[in-house]
Recover the amino acids of this structure.
C-alpha cells in the first residue's frame, strides 16, 4: 500500500466514530462515538501501546463532547455527523513518530483552520496508517464540510505533497482500488480472477506480434478483450461472462498503451515463433485437399443403409469419424479450480510426508 487515502461519511452517531479511530482492534463503524473510541484507544492490550492520538482544535479526552457542543450550538445535529478519513504508507518506510507527524500536518492543512479533528496513528499492523475523525460542522460559522470529489482530490494531493516532502513513496497515477477480498487473496498467494487475467495477458504478450494476434491468443485462453479504439479503456472478461473489467485496474503494466509497448519490446522473431508454435499446438494442422475424379453417376450410386449406416452415424456422433475440430480452451473458472486442486494436492503431500 503506497500512500493510500480514503474518506467516508458517518451518519449514525457521533460517538461510534470517535471510538473507531481510538481502538485499532475494531472494524469499520458508521457511528461517531464508536469511531472516536476506535481512534483514541491507546491500548490494544494492557501492555502494548497500539496507537498515537492527537486532537486538532479539540482535546483527545473530550473530543466527542466538544464536537457535539459545536453541533448543538449551530443546530446541526442531523445529517452527516462526521467524516472518517484514512492515510497509509508503504510497509517499513516510516517510523511511528514520522507517520503521526505527517498525519497531524495533513489534518492541519486540510481542516485545521475550521474543523475539529482527531488524528490517530495505528501501530497494530506492519503497515502504519493514520485515521482522521473530522467533525462535519465548521466550529466558526456552522457550515457543513462539503465532502465532494474535489475535497477528496485535495486530501490526496496534500497527502502526496507531504510524502514527497519527506522523501516517501507516492502513487503518481492512481488506477483505482482493488476490492478488499481480492487484495488479501492476492497478498496470500491465492488464485483470483485478477491474477488469472494477468497470467493470460502476460502469456498473450509473449506470443503476440501485434494487437490482432494478442486478441486471438486471449480468445484461445478463454478471454474476450474489447479493443475498440473509440473506447477510452480496453476491457477484459471471460467469454460468455457478463461483467467486464477495465484492464488498467489490473495494474500499470496492463493498461492498453502499456500492453502495446510490451508487445513491441518483445523480440519480434521470438514472439512470432512462440505464436506459430502456440497456434500449431492448439489448432489442428490444415491439410490441403486433394482433388479426386469420380467416374460414373452419383445418382446411381447406392446409398449406405441399414446397420452399416447406423454404425457410421454413431461413429460420427461419438467423434470417431473425422469432423471439424473446434478448440475449446479451459474457462478462467476451470483454470482457477485446477489451481486450487493443485494447492490442495501440495498441502496433502506435505502433510503425508510428516505423518
Amino acid at each position: 500500500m503506497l500512500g493510500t487515502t480514503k474518506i467516508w461519511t458517518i451518519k449514525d452517531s457521533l460517538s461510534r466514530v470517535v471510538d473507531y479511530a481510538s481502538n485499532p482492534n475494531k472494524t469499520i463503524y458508521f457511528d461517531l462515538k464508536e469511531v472516536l473510541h476506535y481512534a483514541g484507544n491507546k491500548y490494544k492490550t494492557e501492555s502494548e501501546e497500539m496507537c498515537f492520538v492527537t486532537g486538532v482544535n479539540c482535546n483527545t479526552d473530550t473530543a466527542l463532547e466538544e464536537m457535539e457542543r459545536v453541533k448543538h450550538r449551530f443546530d446541526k445535529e442531523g445529517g452527516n455527523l462526521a467524516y472518517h478519513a484514512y492515510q497509509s504508507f508503504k510497509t517499513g518506510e516510516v517510523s511511528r513518530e514520522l507517520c503521526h507527524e505527517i498525519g497531524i500536518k495533513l489534518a492541519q492543512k486540510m481542516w485545521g483552520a475550521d474543523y475539529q479533528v482527531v488524528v490517530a496513528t495505528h501501530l497494530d499492523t506492519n503497515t502504519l496508517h493514520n485515521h482522521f475523525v473530522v467533525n462535519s460542522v465548521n466550529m466558526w460559522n456552522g457550515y457543513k464540510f462539503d465532502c465532494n470529489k474535489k475535497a477528496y482530490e485535495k486530501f490526496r494531493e496534500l497527502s502526496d505533497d507531504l510524502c514527497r516532502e519527506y522523501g516517501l513513496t507516492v502513487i503518481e497515477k492512481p488506477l483505482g482500488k482493488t476490492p478488499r477480498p481480492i487484495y488479501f487473496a492476492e497478498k496470500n498467494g491465492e488464485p483470483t480472477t485478477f491474477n488469472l487475467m494477468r497470467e493470460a495477458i502476460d502469456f498473450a504478450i509473449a506470443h503476440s506480434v501485434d494487437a490482432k494476434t494478442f486478441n486471438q491468443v486471449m480468445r484461445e485462453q478463454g478471454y474476450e478483450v474489447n479493443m475498440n479504439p473509440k473506447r477510452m479503456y480496453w476491457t477484459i472478461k471471460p467469454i460468455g461472462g457478463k461483467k467486464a473489467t477495465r484492464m488498467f485496474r489490473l495494474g500499470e503494466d496492463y493498461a492498453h498503451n502499456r500492453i502495446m509497448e510490451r508487445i513491441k519490446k518483445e523480440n519480434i522473431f521470438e514472439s512470432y515463433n512462440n505464436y506459430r508454435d502456440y497456434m500449431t499446438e492448439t489448432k489442428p494442422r490444415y491439410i490441403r485437399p486433394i482433388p479426386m475424379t469420380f467416374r460414373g453417376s452419383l445418382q446411381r450410386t447406392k446409398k449406405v443403409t441399414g446397420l452399416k449406416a447406423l454404425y457410421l452415424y454413431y461413429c460420427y456422433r461419438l467423434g470417431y469419424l473425422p469432423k471439424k475440430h473446434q478448440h475449446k480452451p479451459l474457462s478462467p473458472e476451470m483454470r482457477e479450480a485446477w489451481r486450487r486442486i493443485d494447492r490442495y494436492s501440495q498441502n496433502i503431500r506435505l502433510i503425508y510426508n510428516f505423518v
